[in-house]
Amino acid sequence: MRTIVPTLNSAIPSFTDSAYASELTHAIGAAATLAGAVLLVWLFMYATYKLVQLITRAMMLPAVITYVITVPLLATVVIIGILNR
Predict the structure, then answer these.
(1) How far apart are CA 3 and CA 18, in angstroms?
(2) Tens digit of each residue's pLDDT (9 = 90 or more) over 9-35
(3) What is the gyration radius of the CA atoms in the chain, in angstroms?
(4) Exposed/middle/buried for 73, CB within 10 Å: 0-12, 13-18, 19+?
(5) How many other C-beta atoms can be found within 10 angstroms of the C-beta atom of residue 21?
(6) Alpha-carbon distances, residue 31 vs 9, 24, 65, 76, 79 (angstroms)
(7) What transmembrane ranges does the database entry give (predicted)?
(8) 62 in Cβ contact with 55 (< 8 Å)
(9) CA 75 and chain centroid, separation
(10) Over the stretch 30-72, which tens digit does the pLDDT of each residue have?
């Protein structure tokens, strides 16, 4: 019994195939959108951390208090977002 192995040309579609090009374009667009969303979330988290750090330094509290305040605050935002879905 012979096993038929597909050739490279039949296994990987050509870039000129319009369906493949369309799917590839959609995948690249989705990846770019996801990268933008991740960047916005990171910026929000960083800004929140810096704001809490500024307040805790002004109150002359230990640096660990910044994390003690920031982590539950961001976790609350995530939980509210999940429940709001």
Answers:
(1) 30
(2) 666 666 667 777 888 889 999 999 999
(3) 24
(4) middle
(5) 13
(6) 26, 11, 36, 27, 25
(7) 27-49, 61-83
(8) no
(9) 16
(10) 999 999 999 999 999 999 999 999 999 999 999 999 999 999 9
- What are the contacts of 18-21 at 24+ separation with CB within 8 A? none
As a whole number of angstroms, the distance between CA 52 and CA 50 comes to 5
Vertex 54, ends 49 and 57: CA angle to 5°? 120
Tokens of 17: 């195939």
38, two tokens: 């991740």
- Cα 58 to Cα 19, 49, 53, distances in angstroms: 59, 14, 8
- Rounded distance, CA 30 to CA 33, Å? 5
